[in-house]
């Protein structure tokens, strides 16, 4: 599918929508525009997706990317990184070694099929990867080149905060104070499907801790942006 153009959410934060079809596992990507170079939050789920996002950014007249932030190491957030030119990749330190191990795996359509045969619970994720990837010749998984442990503020004023959680140990939120936007990635989601127990659900306690009068918008990667008022209603039920 063609990636829709970015829409401005608030201030200098733009959202490139994902695909609502859950089988495609293509989340939204945020762009924090800055004259010194934009901060892109998450890389897209494939090199082709990343190139579509880049075209959308150019068409919207936004500054080219200078920083690429990983909210966490899962494939649909990082597999597009190898198609982003001239960016500094930033992520939590605990994701760096995970991605080094992922980069060493012999990725191919055959490998995906073999892994699903060995563990059928991988089926939804690995079938989505096969659909996303047009080829493997120039594909590589890139760990973050710049890491942090607790918090990091980029030169553009974007604040990165490690929150961890059941979904991924390196889950990071990206905060844009001047635009009053909090980009949550998948931090409060339950574990990935192949690791999920029947009683696993969203971590609403984490969401409650993240809510603040300082931020008017909360954006996760696979849902629509939520206002502070809407988020408070959701976590109070």
Automatic annotation (TrEMBL):
<dbReference type="InterPro" id="IPR050855">
    <property type="entry name" value="NDM-1-like"/>
</dbReference>
<feature type="domain" description="Metallo-beta-lactamase">
    <location>
        <begin position="26"/>
        <end position="222"/>
    </location>
</feature>
<protein>
    <submittedName>
        <fullName>MBL fold metallo-hydrolase</fullName>
    </submittedName>
</protein>
<dbReference type="InterPro" id="IPR001279">
    <property type="entry name" value="Metallo-B-lactamas"/>
</dbReference>
<dbReference type="Pfam" id="PF00753">
    <property type="entry name" value="Lactamase_B"/>
</dbReference>
<dbReference type="InterPro" id="IPR036866">
    <property type="entry name" value="RibonucZ/Hydroxyglut_hydro"/>
</dbReference>
């Amino acid at each position: 599918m063609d990636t829709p153009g970015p829409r401005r959410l608030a201030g200098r934060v733009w959202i490139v929508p994902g695909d609502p079809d859950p089988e495609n596992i293509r989340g939204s990507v945020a762009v924090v525009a800055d004259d010194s170079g934009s901060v892109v939050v998450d890389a897209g789920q494939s090199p082709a997706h990343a190139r579509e996002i880049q075209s959308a950014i150019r068409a919207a007249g936004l500054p080219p990317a200078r920083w690429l932030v990983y909210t966490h190491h899962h494939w649909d957030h990082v597999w597009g990184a190898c198609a982003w030119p001239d960016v500094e990749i930033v992520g939590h330190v605990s994701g760096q070694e995970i991605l080094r191990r992922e980069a060493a795996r012999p990725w191919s359509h055959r490998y995906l099929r073999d892994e699903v045969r060995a563990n059928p619970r991988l089926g939804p994720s690995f079938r989505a990867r096969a659909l996303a990837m047009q080829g493997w010749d120039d594909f590589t998984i890139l760990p973050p080149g710049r890491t942090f442990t607790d918090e990091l503020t980029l030169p553009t004023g974007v604040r990165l905060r490690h929150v961890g959680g059941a979904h991924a140990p390196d889950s990071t939120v990206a905060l844009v104070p001047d635009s009053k936007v909090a980009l949550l990635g998948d931090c409060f989601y339950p574990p990935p499907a192949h690791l999920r127990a029947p009683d696993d659900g969203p971590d609403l306690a984490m969401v409650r801790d993240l809510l603040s009068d300082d931020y008017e918008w909360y954006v996760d990667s696979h849902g629509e942006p939520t206002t502070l008022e809407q988020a408070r209603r959701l976590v109070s039920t």
